[in-house]
Amino acid sequence: MNRTCAALLVAALLLTGCADDRTGTLGPAPTLPVPASTTGPAAPATPTAPIATGTSAAGPVRSGPATAGPTPVGPVPASTAPTGAAPAGTVTVQLWLVRDGRLAPVTRTRPQTPATSALALDELAAGPSAAEASTALTTLVPEGVRMVRISGGTATVAAPPALTDGPAGTVRLRRAQLVWTLTQFPAVRRVDLGDGRGPTSRADYADLLPPIVVTGPAIGQRVGSPVTVTGSAQVFEATVSVRVLDRDRHVIGAGFTTATCGTGCRGDYRVAVRYRLAATGQGTVEVYEVSARDGSRINVVAVPVVLASAE
């Protein structure tokens, strides 16, 4: 009996010495796939003679002449187009300009300064660039608006009498530009314009946003495939559609996504749309809503950009 036990013990020890080392980690967690709801197939385009080919989330899309849409804007000089990340020693601020009686955001990259709020006010009064003005953007803010202090989440500014000149609707849009621009800074939640109305916040002017707001890409920006489109929207069933058009307004890429909130409320959206283009050139990113009534494109926001070549 004792000899049998000893033999079994020796065999067990030998097997243990040959066993694999299983004390390592299990490796990285698997990457989750992109939810199917974030993108979708593009609407079919009308076939024509051989032209550039685009892509959507569902695969290649033949491009054809674009159907009726917003009036094309003028060209954006490639040499002056922003290219994405701001260079060192600079600061980028967001300005809220006006188009068709609604607010619309643009960005400015300028040399770094500790007085970023004052920079934003000066740029807001200076108004749109030539490329931005070609998309019907303007500013109602007069020169001379100055920052007084920021305390307890409230920015207090001093404004010239021109702030309250004009019809009530114009004055309200002007105030909204200032409030939405200054509240981009984390320390500012409300703005007191010194006109006796007391501090106001973005919520007081939320009705002045258009159904679709595009925060990226910026007007004139050089983009590549896939181009990332971001913003907020209040549209039917939260569905936001995107088309990428070449200089001849042929559709070279398309897709759609859903905002974080549906009909009756505003939500954020983000979607990456692939396109194909033989040579770098002018183009347009169109963001729009598909009409539930007749399937047409409505609430279109057209952003002129420089499209990098992509195969």
From TrEMBL:
Compositionally skewed regions (Low complexity) per UniProt: 35-85
Sorted UniProt keywords: Signal
Keyword Signal listed: yes
Transmembrane helix found in the keyword field: no
Region Disordered, annotated ranges: 29-85
Pfam families the record matches: Germane, Gmad2
Name of protein: Sporulation and spore germination
Upper classification of the organism: Bacteria, Bacillati, Actinomycetota, Actinomycetes, Micromonosporales
